[in-house]
Amino acid sequence: MSPADAPVIPGLEFVRPLGSGGYADVYLYEQQSPRMNVAVKVLKRQGLTTAIRRQFVDEANTMAQLADHPFIVQVFRSEQTADGGAYLVMKYYPPPNLAQRAKAERLTVEEVLRSGIQLASAVETAHRAGIVHRDIKPANVLVSQYGQPGLTDFGIAGRGGHAEDVDEDVGVSVPWSAPEVLYGQSNGDSRSDVYSLAATLWHLLVGRSPFEQPGGDNSAYALMPRIRATPVPTTGRADVPVSLERLLAHAMAKSPDARPQTALELARGLQAVEREQRLPSTSVVVLDEQGRTTSADTPSARPGGADEHDRTSVRALSVPSAPAPAHPPVGTVVDDDEDEPATISGGVVLGVLALLVAVTVGVVVWAVNRGDEEDLPTPAQSTLTRTAAPSRAVDYPEQPAIDARAAAGSVTFSWNYVGAEEGDFFRLRLAGSEGDVAGAEVVTVTDGARRTVKAGSGKTVCAQVSVSRKSGISSPFSAIRCESAG
């Protein structure tokens, strides 16, 4: 990028380049009245297609629709130039972004929890507006001078309209993308955004994406099989509580059905970890059914006080999505952002899904003061009520360990795990090869922690299993185990 490429914009004075991405450059300008710094995202001329120009316009419209949210980067205006170019004028967030910060320093558990809840608020708000982000990653989280995160880059967000007519490739960021998106089984939905947000939080704790191997092959095509079949690794940090490790693994489950189904559910899980660790509480901020921002505070109970139960939660609204169309196999690898692993495009069609938000109930907010000296913001009277909530983190089942034993004409799989509870049942995947397990049909097992599979002599059978509870929560799937029948 060159300063010469920066457009002349009335009322704005060019300062310096800020960075460059796949299809746009970003420059710092100074707005003259009122005087303030702004970031200007300028569409590149090289390789400009109708699809990219349309995507750029959609990004402006999407971010403008969500502009009032405190954790989504605000767009002030968008213009198309006479020569076919375009630019967005946005709120300026000084460097570093969260990807740069995670590379340079170790973020505390408290900061990651706080940022996770705030970002989940932004993602939940987008989902309620019928928008799926599809590219949540550390580089797309900016940080204000006051330390508040700002989610940006809605360039490939799904928001309905004409994207189904676009046949050009659109890249996805492999290290943080859900397996069903990478392998063309889904165009992306609220659950894939939950996966990407959890992968982002894992990255912030460790300094790299979950399936990167230090010193190993971390190309897109090396990462994809790990993302599809390898269990989510632990962070390896002694200060990360087990409850957070379990929550992140749960949110990055291979099957979309096994994850938290909404960003709000993930936020509530993160709030539960905050309470468990006696950390300052972080608010969930979402839109209510009238499109008004509702602050849902979750103050920690006073340790040792008469009221040990936190009493704040937000009830999720249902956001139905249309089924994703079938997609061809994955295509070519392309680069998207500087200083990041490769992204992939081709058969993964990131067309826009129309999401209809069926709002039949309001947001119900429960709040209680954290201490006698604190007064909480009071939401609208029509949305305020009180109830009790558990004061400990959600007890997600442990990831099971699976074993296999061959016999004549069969293979028997058995598994065990810590913390078994009455009523636990299991979700089993079976396939003829390791690579096919992640896409195999899930079989429910209710008669014990084993299953015998008939197979011809020498035939290989592979399996992995997850623990489920009556409450609807599930463990991450186990590692894949393969064995050949005798």
Automatic annotation (TrEMBL):
ATP binds at K41. Keywords: ATP-binding, Kinase, Membrane, Nucleotide-binding, Serine/threonine-protein kinase, Transferase, Transmembrane, Transmembrane helix. The keyword Membrane applies. InterPro entries: Kinase-like_dom_sf, Prot_kinase_dom, Protein_kinase_ATP_BS, Ser/Thr_kinase_AS. The keyword Electron transport does not apply. Residues 281-339 are annotated as: Disordered. Residues 12-273 form the Protein kinase domain. This is Serine/threonine protein kinase. It comes from Phycicoccus sonneratiae.
